[in-house]
Design the sequence.
């Protein structure tokens, strides 16, 4: 599921990106309409798999 591409959502993500960077973190905001040859569901799956690996790497040292 993705958020509707509406200005208020984009503004919220811009704010979040700034907050993350101001706190010393890394953030990149990318706005994509489509990736040719890749279905929306595939994009969602790739994102979720990548984030799951990231979260696992972060939570493992924390004992979660």
Sequence:
């Amino acid at each position: 599921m993705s958020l509707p591409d509406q200005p208020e959502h984009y503004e919220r993500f811009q704010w979040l990106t700034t907050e993350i960077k101001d706190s010393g973190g890394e953030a990149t905001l990318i706005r994509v309409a489509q990736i040719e040859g890749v279905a929306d569901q595939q994009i969602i799956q790739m994102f979720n798999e990548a984030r799951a690996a990231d979260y696992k790497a972060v939570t493992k040292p924390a004992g979660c």
Summary: The two ends are 26 Å apart (CA to CA). The longest helix spans residues 40-62. The chain is about 60% helix and 0% strand. The chain has a mean pLDDT of 87.
